[in-house]
Amino acid sequence: MIASVRGPVLSVGLDSAVVEVGGVGLLVHTTPGTAAGLRPGSAASLATTLVVREESLTLYGFADEDERQVFELVQTVSGVGPRLALAMLAVHAPDALRRAVSDGDIHALTKVPGIGKKGAERIVLELRDKIGLPTGAAPVVVSGNGSGAPWRGQVHEALVGLGWSAKQADDAVETVAADAPADATVATLLRAALRELGR
């Protein structure tokens, strides 16, 4: 298994990046929040997991080891594959996901595109004894908001990529922008927008 990659970032997409390792560009699928923290030309170090299918080898990358462990754990639930697991981490930080599962918070889990009430109940049932309690670790800062608002486009693209309409994404970005602290990260702002859309 490829457990991590480190090297210069060649390109960054909405939810992926190409990282050069030993002269080979590896396509790494990530959450929009992690992708937003990567810059072409800068060095990246990502915890990774390789998902092997009959027709493909897909590499998923994470800001830290905790995200990777949660990604792998949620896939033990029947019906949860890597894309849905990644969507869960796009909406909820690992500790927020642990809290939702341990508290049986169905509403929080159904904010993830692709998870309905029955799916959320199954996740709680199958993971409650495995996922553990929130660790209380500080969130990883992946990208500063800065004085301008380049995050608006990134958050808007991420929301549309996760399945919301452009209008819904616009409305959520405007709502979040009204209360956004100057030092908020793109990942934090994306989660705030997803919470807004989940109301």
TrEMBL record:
Domain Helix-hairpin-helix DNA-binding motif class: 72-91, 107-126
Keywords, ordered alphabetically: ATP-binding, Cytoplasm, DNA damage, DNA recombination, DNA repair, DNA-binding, Helicase, Hydrolase, Nucleotide-binding
Alphabetized GO MF terms: ATP binding; four-way junction DNA binding; four-way junction helicase activity
GO cellular component, one term: Holliday junction resolvase complex
Role according to the record: The RuvA-RuvB-RuvC complex processes Holliday junction (HJ) DNA during genetic recombination and DNA repair, while the RuvA-RuvB complex plays an important role in the rescue of blocked DNA replication forks via replication fork reversal (RFR). RuvA specifically binds to HJ cruciform DNA, conferring on it an open structure. The RuvB hexamer acts as an ATP-dependent pump, pulling dsDNA into and through the RuvAB complex. HJ branch migration allows RuvC to scan DNA until it finds its consensus sequence, where it cleaves and resolves the cruciform DNA.
Domain notes: Has three domains with a flexible linker between the domains II and III and assumes an 'L' shape. Domain III is highly mobile and contacts RuvB.
Family: Belongs to the RuvA family.
Name of the protein in question: Holliday junction branch migration complex subunit RuvA
